[in-house]
Each structure stands twice: as structure tokens, then as C-alpha cells.
Amino acid sequence: MKRQDKKNEHLKQQLKDLHKKFDELKLDSWEKVEAHDKHMADVYIELAKKIRPLKLPNQNNIAVLGSVSVGKSTIVNSLLDKKLADVGAGETTTRTSVYKGNGLQIFDVYGKNDEKTYMTPESICDLKSVEKRLLVITSTVKDITKLARFLDQLNLRYTIVFNKFDLVDDEEQQQLRQKIENEVKVLELKCCEKIYFISGKHPEKFDDWNKLVKHLRQ
User: Fold this and answer.
1) Which pTM value belongs to this model?
2) Taking all residues of the chain, what is their mean pLDDT, rounded to a whole number?
3) Same domain, 43 and 75
4) Potential cystine with 166: which of 44, 126, 199, 210 (Cβ 3.0-4.6 Å)?
């Protein structure tokens, strides 16, 4: 076990060294990394694939990802049925926050408005350690396309959650559902398992909330 831990730390250090190069080259997105040096990007992915996940005690481990203002904290609080995550905290969190309740363990993974912040060795390890990953959006799948494709390359399955669906006019909801589902098909997001349309603030408004909760407990 110690040998495996040592190997994991060595892999993480290699990833950190590459990540530092990305910063030095001012490559602020995975798309730019691939465009600048495809070989370096491939090496990063291969190293990331070798990172060993953490052994977590709870089987219902969930990572929540998404840009600022998509309502991640509201979703977390509703899933736990208690106020634990700070709502409207912006980008103040600089590490993964862990919340427990209702038989769930939720990892609010640190990330700014681009997928590169999810590419750190620590975040990759967190993302590989959980069973479910929620990518939260409020307008279009294109907002998380780069992050989704990064997860695709790591063969990590995820669920897209359209939050604040209650702010969409009733007569436009079905049309928006079709639009989002079509975007996933057109963008060929191979590891997308499901899509849910919810209101984290008013979970009782849409049946998809109960479906989401059931999915997270499976």
C-alpha cells in the first residue's frame, strides 16, 4: 500500500510540473493546451488516468461541478435537506468542500469559470474517487463542454443538471429540454449518463428532482 501511495504522489508531482508549465505558457483552458502541444496534453491525460482514486467509506459519493452563479450550493443544501454550503459565496472556495447528510457525501469541487481549474492533481483525484459527478448549468451545455470533454478523456461518467428551471417560462420549458438534449447529441459527449431539469431552490416543482435523488442513490 505504501508503494502504491508513493507512486500516486509521484504521479501527482508530474502532473503539478506540467500544470505549472501550462501557467507559464498562459494556457488558461484545456482547449489551448491541446492546441499548443498535443503531445503534452496526451501525456497529461495518460498520467491523470493512472492516478489512484481515494478509498471513500460512503458509497453515495457525489462531486458537484459548475461555474459561479449556477446554484451549486443551493443544490447541495437541498440534497442534504440542511444549509451547509454557502449560497452566493462566489469563487471564495479554493479547495474541495465536503458535506454529509441524507446518506450522501457531496464534494463541492473547487473550480472557477474554466475547466483548467479542475485539472489539478487534487481535483482529478477527487473526481476519480466519487461514484457520481454532476455538471450544473443554467443556460446551455456549451458552458461546460470543455470540462465535459476533459472528463470524457478520463472516461469519467457524469450527469448534466440544468438548474433554475423554474425561471424558464412554462411554455418554453419543453422546447428548452429538447434544445439541451440535442446539444449533448451534437457535441457527442460520450460519458454523459443523464440530463435533469430542476430547481435547487424549489426542488418540489419538478419531477426530475426525485429522479435525480434516486439516480444519486443507485
Assistant:
1) 0.89
2) 89
3) no
4) 199
